[in-house]
Specification:
Helix content is about 25%, strand content about 30%. By secondary structure, it is of the alpha+beta class. The chain has one domain: Sortase, Chain: A (Beta Barrel), CATH 2.40.260.
Length: about 230
């Protein structure tokens, strides 16, 4: 009887180790594959930026571009995540989009404003673990930290102004035009970053809010703003 129990215990330990190794490998492999996909898409987006811009009619400014689900619109830079941190931003928050190692722009329940809009909330989501884990360190951001959104023509510099460490995954108010629970009390030009929490789970959501403080035009050398140097 004792030997049978001992054998069962060894089998359970072995099974536990195999499962742990499988989970670790799965997270690592999805990170590798997602980063490869994001790098390819990011390279293609930058190539389109290098092409001459289409002129607007007459002397009028060109209209703001329209983006479909999955389209790339720019890059997110978070200095607190590392000096060379860069995340491709694409339209949509479906698994098909987010699983490719990007930050996705909310299209529902509120359609996110864009950085160049004169008012609204530019709301993004990304995975905390696996599939690139672009927001793995989102909990490291504190008030005053810089977050920069890079588009073809401008650098949008935001400053973190508030954090919600944990809320229900059904709390859609955190990505509203004036985010509920944020320090903002009226319309403005905001940025919201959301991800799952606690780490390695998807039970709750966390949110980080930032406010636009400056827009720097892109120069010929694409010199980044001081916050990224």
């Amino acid at each position: 009887m004792a030997s049978a129990l001992g054998l069962a215990g060894e089998l359970l330990i072995t099974l536990g180790l195999v499962l742990a190794l499988f989970v670790g490998y799965s997270l690592w492999w999805t990170d590798v594959m997602a980063q490869r996909a994001a790098d390819r898409q990011g390279d293609r987006l930058r190539q389109t930026w290098s092409a001459p811009a289409s002129p607007g009619p007459g002397d009028e400014a060109s209209p703001a571009p329209e983006y479909a689900a999955g389209d790339g619109i720019g890059f997110l830079h978070v200095p607190a995540f590392g000096k060379d941190d860069q995340t491709l931003i694409r339209m949509g928050t479906t698994a098909e989009v987010l699983n490719e190692g990007v930050a996705g722009v909310y299209e529902e329940p509120y359609r996110s404003a864009m950085p160049w809009d004169q008012e609204g909330n530019f709301a993004l989501a990304a995975h905390r673990d696996g599939h690139g884990a672009k927001f793995h360190d989102l909990d490291r951001l504190v008030d005053g930290d810089a977050v920069v959104v890079e588009t073809r023509d401008d650098w949008y510099v935001y400053q973190v102004a508030g954090t919600l460490p944990q809320t229900s995954k059904y709390n859609v108010g955190v990505v509203a035009p004036v985010p509920e629970g944020s320090p903002f009390t009226g319309p403005g030009r905001y940025l919201t970053l959301t991800t799952c929490t606690p780490v390695y789970t998807s039970r709750y959501r966390m949110a980080v809010w930032a406010k636009l403080v400056r827009v720097d035009p892109v120069d010929a050398r694409r010199t980044p703003p001081p916050e990224l140097r």
